[in-house]
Each structure stands twice: as structure tokens, then as C-alpha cells.
Amino acid sequence: MQIPFFNYQSLFKEHEENFIEIFSDIGRRGAYIMQDDLSNFESKIEKYTGIKHAIGVANATDAMQLLLKAGGVGVGDEVIFCSHTMVATASAIAFTGATPIPVEAGSDHLIDPDSIIKAITSRTKAIIPTQLNGRVADMDKILDIAQEYGLQIYEDSAQALGAKYKDQCAGSFGLGGCISFYPAKTLGCFGDGGIVLTNDDNIYNVIKLMRDHGRGEDGNVSIWGFNSRLDNLQAAILNFFFQDYDKTVNRRRGVADLYHEELKDINELALPPATNSNNNHFDIYQNYEIEAERRDELKSFLSDNGIGTLIQWGGKAVHEFKDLGFTQSLPITEKIMRDSLMLPLNMTVTDVEIKYICKCVKGFYND
Fold first, then answer.
1. Quick check: 85 and 130 in contact, CB under 8 A?
2. Are strands 78-82 and 99-103 parallel, antiparallel or unpaired?
3. Which of 124, 223, 317, 338 has its CA at 20 to 30 Å from residue 107's CA atom?
4. In the sheet that 340-343 helps form, which strands lie side by side, from edge to edge?
5. What is the pLDDT of residues 150-181, one digit of tens each?
6. In contact, 287 and 340? CB cutoff 8 Å
7. How far apart are CA 48 and CA 302, in angstroms?
8. Does CATH number 3.40.640.10 belong to domain 8-242?
9. pLDDT value at residue 180
10. Cβ of 40: how many Cβ atoms within 10 Å?
């Protein structure tokens, strides 16, 4: 078999006629920037997540930077984040003028609450938990820490649209969160795209201005802003995909169940939490990230057998990019990065292909 990690071409080919009609409709209407398609999509996300405000922006990195700036994070502040994340989390902090402070991940690959406490200083302004791989962190502990030390919370929930902790959606626990619509995400468009989620009216009003050069509906520019609007064509595409989003999440959870059942007895692997292993968590499985002994050998073996895999972020945690000025040593996160491998989990992979992947993994460790 030949099983790519992600089949980008299928995003278009499977519904080609529908997308041609969407392109034609947008073109006929001349509806390119901030039209009804975008406002309709924002309303759908608000209803789906139960979060008061959703603001479409150009990408999730912009979303996080806009949130931080709207919340008053800036020069002289420190913001704690988990180093087991994409560098974009840290860059959003850095571009506000604040200092990103990386801390350890726990066994679930999410931010370790104990590491947060150890990193707090008099300059600490906020905590950013990354809701990674479609799972929400233990937000009770993080909320308690934030309350005790008077800190803000922002969520990098780029990979977690619809993921929940105690029935509460990712992006709703602090001042705001962000979602990415990169093509390979659980809900993806045909390029870059993102959205801000917030229950805070002031944050919402500021970001609505900031995403469009600081301009209000009357044309007056009242604050310095950015050019970061979710393209209306991408919003129309997202509206199309969102119709089946519940089915998408259910299918991804089903694939995760199949992986778990097939691989759970391999001692050399550490698997993500199973779908029903903890009632506090509802995971959407953006990725299926395992920890594997002899990870690099396993990756090569699977490739030789036609199976595409991925090492997230090229195999480095954020603090390991020393050219950015980081000096921290985070041994737990570093071990996670040396051992982790993502197996194919998307809407084109079949049960037969999943069983073939698992057969190959078993064969590697039984050889």
C-alpha cells in the first residue's frame, strides 16, 4: 500500500464540483473581502463552541498575537508557554515585545502545571496552554494557578476546534483562544486561515478593529491595526466543510479507537489517551502522536512499506531553537521530541489502511 501522511489533493478532488461552484459564486458576487460568507462562518463557530465572539483572521498566529496585544501584553512582560508546541506560539508573544518563557510538557504532551509555578516571576503576565493534538489541558489546575498569582490565560487552541474539558470548549477558558484552518487541520481551508474566540466584549471590539487596520464601520481609524482578515473565499470553503464537522470528529475518534485497539499491547509504544479513558476530556484527535522506542528506525521502516509519517515541527521543541535566545534545559520535553511520531489520521485513510499500518508497526517490533 501507499498511504501518505496527508492527502492534500483529496481536499479538492473529493468535492471538486462544489468548490468550482463556490469559486464561481464568490466571483459573480465580487464578494472577496469581509462579506456575508465570513460573518455567517463566524456565527456558526460561535454557536458550535458556545463562545460569545468569533473573529475570522488571516491565520492562527495572527489570532494569538492580536489576542495578546488586545489583552495588554507587551514590553517588560513574561508569558509562560509549553515548549512542546509550534514556534508560532512563542513568536506571537515575542512580537508583542514580551518575553516567551518555555516550560515542560507532561506525559499527555500538554503543558505541565507544576512547571508553570516554577517559572512564575514578578514579570509574569500570562500563561498560554497549547491545546495540542485535539486535546485540552487540565484547565482546573491552570485556572487555579492563574487566580492565585493574578495571571491572564490565553489558549493556543489552533488544533482543538470542538475539543472539550469538562464539557467546556477549547478557547473559552481565559481571555481568548485561537483556531487554525491550515489545510491539514480538522477543519481546513485551501490556504492559511484562523479565528479568534473570546467571551470578552472588550477583547472582541479591539480585535475587530485591529484585524482591519484599526478601522471602524464608519471608516474612522481609532487604534493602530493590522491587515489580518480571513479571506471571504476561504470562509465560503470553510462553511462547506463545516456542514459535516461532527461527522469529521466522530470519524477521527473512530480512527483513534482503531489505532488504540491494534497497538495497545506493544510495550515499546506510548499511545495517546483513548477516547473514553477520562470523562473530563473530549478529544478530537487532530493528530495521533505516539512515543516509540527506536523512533527513527520505525519511521524509516514504515516509509519503506509505503506509509507516510511525520515528526511534529521537525523534531525540535521551541526552546531548542537556541538562535532565538533560549537557554532553558527541559529534559522531559526533549525526550518527548526524540521519541514522538505521528501516524496518518485524516478523512481519507481507511480502516483497511489503518490495520495495515498497525500490522507494519507490530512487524517492526516483533522482528
1. yes
2. parallel
3. 124
4. 269-270, 288-292, 340-343
5. 999 999 999 999 999 999 999 999 999 999 99
6. no
7. 38
8. yes
9. 98
10. 14
Q: In one letter, which amino acid is 84?
A: H
Closest CA to 102 of 127, 77, 123, 122: 127
The total of other beta-carbon atoms located within 10 Å of residue 315's CB is 13
Looking at residue 200, its amino acid is D
Q: pTM above 0.90?
A: yes
Which DSSP string corresponds to 275-288? TTS-TTEE---S-E
In the chain, which stretches have pLDDT less than 70? none
Region label for 116, one of left (φ > 0), alpha (ψ between -120 and 50) or beta (otherwise): alpha
Euclidean distance between CA atoms 67 and 176, whole angstroms: 7
CB neighbourhood size of 118 (10 A)? 10
Question: Would you say 99 and 93 are in contact if contact means Cβ atoms under 8 Å apart?
Answer: yes
Which three cell numbers, joined as nine digits, stand for 322? Answer: 537556541
- 280-291 burial code (b ≥16 CB/10 A, e <16): ebbbbbbbbbbb
The superfamily (CATH) of domain 245-366 is Aspartate Aminotransferase, domain 1 (3.90.1150.10)
pLDDT tens per residue across span 212-225? 999 999 999 999 99
Query: Residues 6 or more apart from 131 whose CB is under 8 A from it?
Result: 110, 137, 155, 156, 157, 158, 159, 160, 163, 170, 171, 177
Query: Which residues lie below 8 Å from residue 242, measured CB to CB, with a gap of 6+?
Result: 41, 44, 45, 48, 187
pLDDT at 273: 95
Q: How far apart are CA 271 and CA 261, in angstroms?
A: 10
Contact call for residues 277 and 244 (beta carbons, < 8 A): no
Q: Scanning the structure block, which residue is given the C-alpha cell 495521533?
A: 288
Give the pLDDT confidence score for residue 367 in this predicted structure. 72
